[in-house]
Fold this sequence. Notes:
Blueprint: H1 7-43, H2 50-76, H3 81-92, H4 95-119, H5 125-150, H6 157-167
Helix pairs in contact: 1-2, 1-3, 1-5, 2-5, 4-5
Amino acid sequence: MSSVPTNAAADKEFVIRHSMLKGYQAFSLLTPPLYTAVTLFRRGRQGFAINRMLRATWVGGGIGTAIGGAMAWARLRSQLPESIHDRRIRLLYNVSQIRTDDHSTIGSILFAVLTPALLWNRASAMNLILGGAGIGSGVGVLVHVARSFSEGEDLKPEGMIEEVKEVSR
Length: 169
């Protein structure tokens, strides 16, 4: 048996990986403000800790990755190989999607390095690096949205939601 995937399997793997990345980006963007709001509401300012917020960020990103992959796998199980291949081709040539992923990756790397440098004594090294990468991923997505908006691209929240739905199709 060969370990090289067939074209249909490679298409499915690509779309699932892309959906996992979108799940990571979405949950990394949403987790820090949600965690902060919930913690401040429940415990007040005394209950907030940078270490726990960073840990919640990378755990949230991991959960988003798992959810994104599971949703894509469940939806792709029943689709024809031709439609999966079409989705892969559309993802490969979608400039906005590529820019979003690039900004997210750059933000992850940048914040994975900067967060430990700025907050060294406030959290564990693992939470600083992984949580910083999660925050950077979310910041990268926001930078892409702001840059696209400033360049005059027609950005609509409905369009972004449709992109997320299409990725998981």
